[in-house]
Amino acid sequence: MKMHFCIPVSQQRLDRLGGRYVLYSVYLDGYLFCRVRYSQLHRWNEQLRRVFGNCLPPFPPKYYLAMTASMANERRDQLEQYLQNVTVDPNMLRSDVFVDFLKLVQLDTFSITTKTASLDIFLPDGRNIQVEILTSDTAERVLEVVSHKIGLCQELLGYFGLFLIQCCKEGKFSVMKKLVDFELPYVSLQSAKVEDCKVGLRKWYMDPSLDSVLMDSAAAVALIYMQAVQDMEKEWAKPTQVQRQKLEALQKEDNQTKFLELSQEVRHYGFLQLDPCTCDYPEPGCRAVLSVGNNEISCCITLPGNQTQEIIFQMNRVKCWQVTFLAFLLSSCLKKMISEKMVKLAAENPEMQIEVPEQGKSKKIPHSTKPERLLFSTKKQD
Question: Are 196 and 174 in contact (CB under 8 A)?
Fold first, then answer.
């Protein structure tokens, strides 16, 4: 699936010889990822083409005369489409020529040199793990270092991810974005320009039943237990009074396995709650809180009379969606849910095949339904 690359702005600059060039600001999942010139991207495309041949998407052509404003805008749009399309191939995403270039432009954009550094990785229970890394280490590499330190086996790394998290007042926090494998966590943290921003370790799957895959690993159980307790405390998961009493008793006993088993019955367990936003339904300006997980989007809307109304979007027939600049995390969750559903269907119906990338690997999965389109737009609440 395509990644959320966009180039909303570009700037004209002067080079050392007085000539003009355009610097493109590339955003990934709504945050500045790098600034690059056309010539840099052109050389990168040539390197990729030598490795992968004609399977690459078309690259915008060179102009040998001065560009008009419309030509400049067209090139910016074409470069944006190129970056989105080039990330569809999982083999390309894992290649050295792909990753090394993106590492370099991230470091150059924020004037960070490659050196040894300490990075704090925050756990859901509030503790942090300090790891020694290189500033040029990718999120995939940092996750490997963290997993080794906490005793999490390599085979289970795909169920966890690194996230940018903002700690807010009164113990609240906001998940800003999931760091993709080729992002540099050290650089992303330095460039976020958000107060109290941290790199956090969280599970990265939207189907709560996948907990069962992790139950034989003490380190994995400890992590998902921490997150389950945190989700209950933050009221992301919504147990009944009876369920809460049972969970509190199990927590006092430190019976993590039974706690997680009971959590499966809790409403919105394993969901990710997004920041409050405003929506236009049923009236413009209504406050809304979105929770995403278990193949649904739950939208809790506060009506003008202060009553609340919950609207649920089921994901079983969704093919595509449209989101605003502030809703990339929502879109990432939707993509994750669809991937998980396809993998589950593949196991149930091995005779039906379609190729969909999952966790950086290409898998054959079934596809027999005709999904509907989902148009969903959010605006972050001030």
Answer: no
3-state secondary structure 287-356: EEEEEEECCEEEEEEECCCCCEEEEEEECCCEEEEECCCCCHHHHHHHHHHHHHHHHHHHHHCCCCCCEE
Residue 135 CA neighbour count, 13 Å, CB half? 17
Residues recorded for the chain: 382
* Global confidence as pTM: 0.88
Q: Could you read off the pLDDT tens digit of each residue along the chain, which spans 382 residues?
A: 788 899 999 888 877 777 778 899 999 998 999 999 999 999 999 999 999 988 899 999 888 777 778 888 899 999 999 999 999 988 999 999 999 999 999 999 999 999 999 999 999 998 999 999 999 999 999 999 999 999 999 999 999 999 999 987 777 889 999 999 999 999 999 998 888 899 999 999 999 999 999 999 999 999 999 999 999 999 999 999 999 999 999 999 999 999 999 999 999 999 999 999 888 888 888 999 999 999 999 999 998 888 999 999 888 766 677 766 557 899 899 989 988 988 888 788 777 654 544 443 433 333 333 333 344 444 444 4
